[in-house]
Each structure stands twice: as structure tokens, then as C-alpha cells.
Write a sequence for this structure.
């Protein structure tokens, strides 16, 4: 015999019954409290572990890293080393200022370890890894504060797990240094520190790789548009100081007043540098290379512009400004006959952000805006499968 259950009649003083549906209004009400995003410790520790692995196990992928940077640094430390033609006083295409920046770590390591050159090598490697960790941590935290923890978490996962970032993070190359600067400048831009973003952009171009100026243009120009006076002063002062230091340093080593930054630009642009002598590739080289280093994450990054109508509503214009160098740089470098994997290093963090934005926007194509079912678990599962596939693919190659 079924027993009837009597319910108490609701009273006026009773709290309202919870709604069975979950709307964006409910989400807004729950998010009234201040959300500071991810804490600094999580991305710093996660990236630190992966960059430590890179510093200790990453091979040297490019001959230029050996002969244009490790050899000259070895000469500064031990007074012996091979010299490439770029370092001859006739051409003076490489600035010793970039080498001296790394000697700040290598010299104390030499004093500490003496003739144990392997330890000095790893000291520099750990320094490169630390620069990567510090700049990418700022970038991830800035993303979380401006756009939420989910986008930042996806980006952090890709920065940690993609083989491209693993290789580039501890490479002793100006393109890797420009990658650090791109991460830091983008993070400062998202934190509304526009003057600092322009200053860091100047450092990335002058101290790092002069050709990477194209990758810094969107953030720099928009920062000047927002806060012209402060951003212009910060960029101008930083540029003048670095150019002066570079000229004095080069005078000391080349024995004449010259600007290696200007020499490099003149030789490759106005002087008709013969870079094609070192090999040429077709226009699809970087697309294949990007897929090899990022697997389907690279494909997702290429879909970002197609998702722009959705992404614009979720993130606004600032994210497009941050990610746009990915497409500018990829298009420009694909038009050059001579291509190398390291030329794409500056935009590697942007590939991670673009792919993450597409992943987070992907459920919006399939669910109603008031649907209570959160498909983020499906997206996370899809991302995990893609990452495992990417690592397996690179290991196969």
C-alpha cells in the first residue's frame, strides 16, 4: 500500500526554491565576487618542471645556435672559439650585446665550476629556461585575469605539452629571446601596462631579433593608440639606451663604430642577402612544420579567424590584437624563399593562445546559450586525445 507524502505549505518567509535551469544571469550573479584568475604559483611550477626537462634533455637543433652563439660565448669565457663570417669586422652582423647578456650568467658559472664546461653550459640552459618560465607565467596569469581561468589553463597546458615550445624554450637563439619578449609584452598588454609592453617589444627587437619587429607591431601600435605619450617615451628611451649600448659594445669587439642591428637589416633587405644559398622551401613548409610541432593544436590555431564572430563576443578586440602577429608573421615568413624552423619561434606562444580560444569557443557551436549541460569535459577530453596524438606523432618523426 503506497503511503501518501504530505508536503508543508510554503510560507512567505521561506527562501525561493532553486531554479532547475541555469542561465547566464545566474552565472553573472555567481561571478559578482572579484576573480583574480590563476595564482602565480601554478603556471610557474608547471612551466618550471617542463622547462627544467627541456634544459636538461633538449638537443641543439640548429647549427646557427652552435656557431653563432655558443662558440662566440665560449670565446668570451675561454678566449678560444670558432668565428663565423657574421662576426667578422667586415660584416659585423651580430651584436655582442646579446652574448654579454648571457655572459652575466655564464661568467659566474665559470668562476664557480672552473674548467667544467658542461656545468657552465647547463647554467646558461637553466637561465634560458627561467626566462621562458617567467615570461610565460606573466602571459598565462594575464590571460586568466582578463578572460578567465579556462582559457588560461588550456594555454598553460599547450605551453607545457607541445613539442615546439619544449624545443624553443631553451634554445640559445635570438628568435627564442624574441619569443620570451612576445610572451611578456602580450601579458603586459592584457594587464593594461601599455608603456611596459612597448618597452619590452623594443628589447625583443633590438637585443633579440630585429626582424621580429613585425610580430611586435600590433601590440605596439595599439598601445601607442591607447596611451601615446607614456608608451612612446618608454619605447623611445628603451630603444635609444639599447642602441647606444649595442654600438659601444660592438666598437669594443669590432674595433670600429658600427651598428650590428642596422648592418643586419641593410644586408638582408637593402643589400640583397644571399640567404637562398642555404636552401629554399615551398610556401607550405611552415604549415607542415607547425603541424609537426603542435599537431592538431596548430590546425585549431589556424581556425581562429573563422571563429572570430564567436571569439569576438567572448573576448573582445584585445585578444585579436595579441594573436594577430601569428598570421602576420606566418604569411611574411612563408613568402621568403629561405625557411628554417627557428624562424617561427617568436609566435609559438600565440599558437597556443589561438588554439585555446578555439577550443573554449567550440561548444558554443553546439549548445543553446541557456543549456545547463556544460560540455567543457568533452572539450578537455578532446584536447587530451589531441595532445597525446601530437606527442606520439613527433616521437614517430
Amino acid at each position: 500500500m503506497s503511503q501518501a507524502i504530505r508536503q508543508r505549505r510554503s510560507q512567505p518567509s521561506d527562501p525561493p526554491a532553486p531554479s532547475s535551469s541555469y542561465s547566464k544571469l545566474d552565472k553573472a550573479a555567481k561571478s559578482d565576487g572579484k576573480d583574480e584568475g590563476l595564482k602565480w604559483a601554478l603556471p610557474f611550477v608547471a612551466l618550471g618542471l617542463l622547462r627544467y626537462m627541456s634544459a636538461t634533455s633538449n638537443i641543439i637543433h640548429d647549427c646557427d645556435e652552435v656557431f653563432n652563439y655558443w662558440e662566440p660565448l665560449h670565446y668570451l669565457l675561454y678566449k678560444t672559439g670558432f668565428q663565423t663570417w657574421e662576426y667578422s669586422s667586415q660584416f659585423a652582423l651580430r651584436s655582442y650585446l646579446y652574448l654579454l647578456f648571457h655572459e652575466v650568467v655564464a661568467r659566474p658559472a665559470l668562476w664557480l665550476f672552473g674548467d667544467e664546461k658542461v656545468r657552465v653550459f647547463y647554467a646558461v640552459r637553466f637561465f634560458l629556461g627561467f626566462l621562458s618560465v617567467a615570461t610565460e607565467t606573466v602571459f598565462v596569469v594575464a590571460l586568466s585575469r582578463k578572460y578567465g581561468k579556462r582559457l588560461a589553463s588550456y594555454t598553460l597546458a599547450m605551453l607545457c605539452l607541445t613539442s615546439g615550445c619544449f624545443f624553443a624554450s631553451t634554445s640559445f637563439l635570438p628568435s627564442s629571446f624574441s619569443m620570451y619578449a612576445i610572451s611578456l609584452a602580450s601579458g603586459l598588454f592584457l594587464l593594461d601596462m601599455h608603456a611596459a609592453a612597448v618597452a619590452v617589444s623594443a628589447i625583443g627587437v633590438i637585443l633579440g631579433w630585429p626582424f621580429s619587429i613585425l610580430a611586435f607591431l600590433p601590440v605596439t601600435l595599439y598601445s601607442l593608440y591607447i596611451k601615446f605619450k607614456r608608451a612612446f617615451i618608454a619605447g623611445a628611451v628603451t630603444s635609444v639606451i639599447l642602441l647606444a649600448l649595442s654600438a659601444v659594445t660592438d666598437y669594443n669587439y669590432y674595433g670600429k663604430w658600427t651598428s650590428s642591428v642596422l648592418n643586419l637589416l641593410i644586408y638582408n633587405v637593402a643589400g640583397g642577402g644571399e640567404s637562398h644559398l642555404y636552401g629554399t622551401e615551398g610556401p607550405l613548409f611552415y604549415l607542415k612544420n607547425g603541424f609537426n610541432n603542435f599537431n592538431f593544436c596548430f590546425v585549431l590555431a589556424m581556425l581562429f579567424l573563422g571563429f572570430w564572430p564567436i571569439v569576438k563576443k567572448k573576448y573582445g578586440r584585445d585578444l585579436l590584437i595579441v594573436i594577430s602577429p601569428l598570421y602576420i608573421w606566418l604569411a611574411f615568413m612563408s613568402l621568403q624563399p629561405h625557411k628554417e624552423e627557428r624562424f617561427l619561434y617568436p609566435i609559438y606562444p600565440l599558437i597556443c593562445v589561438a588554439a585555446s580560444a578555439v577550443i573554449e569557443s567550440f561548444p558554443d557551436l553546439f549548445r543553446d546559450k541557456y543549456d545547463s549541460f556544460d560540455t567543457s569535459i568533452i572539450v578537455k577530453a578532446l584536447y587530451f586525445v589531441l595532445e597525446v596524438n601530437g606527442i606520439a606523432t613527433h616521437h614517430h618523426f
User: Anything to note?
Assistant: Residues 43 and 137 are 6 Å apart (CA to CA). The radius of gyration is 25 Å.
